[in-house]
Specification:
The structure is a homodimer. By secondary structure, chain A is an alpha/beta fold. Helices cover about 45% and strands about 15% of the residues of chain A. Chain A is globular, with a radius of gyration of 18 Å. At the A-B interface, helix 10 and helix 12 of A face helix 10 and helix 12 of B.
Chain lengths: ~300, ~300
């Protein structure tokens, strides 16, 4: 599907555009664990990498469309603006106001739909056809996957070598891009981490085929995809050694750790890799962990911290 | 008292020891405002700079003593450990457990005293004499002031030129070191920011002499000094143009801004400069702001955010 050179090409394209987020360590975790703080990335998450890589491949001026109420929406909006393309984002009517405002703030047009009564795919397809827009998928796209992999590439270049690379796992874009480049660079093990309540990958890998589950209830709202992507599945089954799961309590514990020890804001979905390491689920050696995003409000953080206070 | 070359010498000494924290900007603040995130500094605050600069000037192996329940304690403990010196920290019996544990975690011995019944100076002086320890003052020391100034020096080198440099103001170590180097590098205005409830500098400057106030009630626990330092006063009155004040509500608003927009954890004392900028108290031009520290617990942050929720 994609190869390491696709990730390298994306890295060359993103050079000077994406932030090269600087690896961080913590005395508590020891020198063996190095974190890649993509919460400090433009638009607040690694999603900017894939969106920019994709949109820059389109003919200049092509408008883009994305379905998302989360980090992908903000990433597409920002990448489109930087590339002089118009962006239309389809969001459910009940999306959090802060997310809608952030997306509009990046210059996108937000179109809402009723997620209980209307079919997102049908609306999106019609809108794209009517307006001549190109759909930017959140993960099941080769350029998006390759762009996402640049986070792992930078981590290995800046702080490698590693015995294992650990990333969050939702649709599989970040994990598949990361595994592609990490395995090429000699990293022995690549580990995906998903929420225990949304273990569609664990179930699919056990079954040997993609399985769909109910939309999971978890605080990790960026990892609520309910089946593996088609393209990402091909890469992950070929290159990834393990998928492990963490509970919402473990996620909050990791967010708290990032807050107090690293002074970094990490959203629930972004903290699952750190949660896996803190709970000894990843094994030994030198470990590189992607903290994939930081888009969580202060009030939401306060609520999570107090619900699960120590 | 100190000159710009003292700050430059401290910078040479700290090179490769202190983190060179990378300046950050925010779309909301615009390109004219650049922030220096010393929350990401070793020990969690800029205080490491002064403590290391001071302790490295002592004869190898000299033990050190500090009075502090806050960032200075952790900074002295870490700097002493790195330099192979023993550190004894005198803390009140009612200091927060997390601060005591963090200090012990850096390898220091913590000696407690009853702040309502015992005299800290007398105990400290006796202990220093008995054990042959050198006292490391939190701000009223030339080497500590010069070390603190390296934060502003790096900010100007990495992101200057600036029309104004803004720093928190408690005892005056950070402001005096910053002003010394900033004025030498052609920065027109240097601004100190103190909590409205603890405006000992504003009162002292109005009176033309150092005034002592009651220990202020403010959430900015690192800025609760109740009179200007003796040495820092000399520098500030000579080089600093303005001291402005911010309320606790404005401080929480700035902490929230840092959390949501910058994905950075900034403690109340560390956020006063940003609060001044957000509230238009600093004037125009290119402005460099030191975010001086990030040592605030997740539960305390949650409490502050919910008490003053938007």
């Amino acid at each position: 599907v994609i190869g390491p050179d696709d990730v390298r090409r994306a890295a060359a394209l993103l050079d000077g555009v994406a932030h090269r987020t600087q690896p961080v360590t913590s005395r508590t975790l020891g020198d063996e664990v190095v974190l890649k703080p993509e919460c400090l990335q433009r638009s607040g998450s690694f999603k900017f990498r894939g969106a920019y890589n994709k949109i820059s491949s389109l003919s200049r001026g092509t408008g883009v469309l994305a379905f998302s109420s989360g980090n992908h929406a903000q990433a597409v909006a920002l990448a489109a603006r930087l590339l002089g393309a118009s962006a239309t984002i389809l969001m459910p009517t009940d999306a959090p106001r802060s997310k809608v405002e952030a997306t509009i703030g990046y210059g996108a047009e937000v179109v809402t739909y009723d997620r209980y009564a209307e079919d997102r795919e049908a609306i999106g397809t019609a809108l794209a056809a009517e307006r001549g827009l190109e759909l930017v998928r959140p993960y099941d796209d080769e350029l998006v996957m390759a762009g996402a992999g640049t986070a792992a590439l930078e981590l290995i270049e800046d702080a490698g070598p590693f015995d294992a690379i650990v990333t969050p796992l939702g649709g599989g874009g970040l994990l598949s891009g990361s595994a592609t480049v990490a395995r090429d660079l000699g990293v022995a093990r690549v580990v995906g981490v998903e929420p225990a309540a949304g273990d569609d990958w664990v179930q699919s890998l056990a079954a040997g085929e993609r399985r769909r589950i109910d939309v999971p209830r978890t605080i990790a709202d960026g990892l609520q995809t309910n089946e593996p992507g088609r393209l990402t599945w091909e890469v992950v089954t070929r290159l990834v050694d393990e998928v492990v799961t963490v509970t919402d309590e473990q996620i909050v514990e990791a967010m708290r750790f990032a807050f107090e020890r690293l002074k970094l804001v990490v959203e629930p979905s972004g903290a699952v890799g750190l949660a896996a390491v803190l709970n000894g689920l990843v094994g030994g050696g030198r470990i590189g962990v992607v903290l994939s995003g930081g888009n969580v409000g202060a009030d939401r953080f306060a609520q999570l911290a107090s619900q699960m206070s120590q």
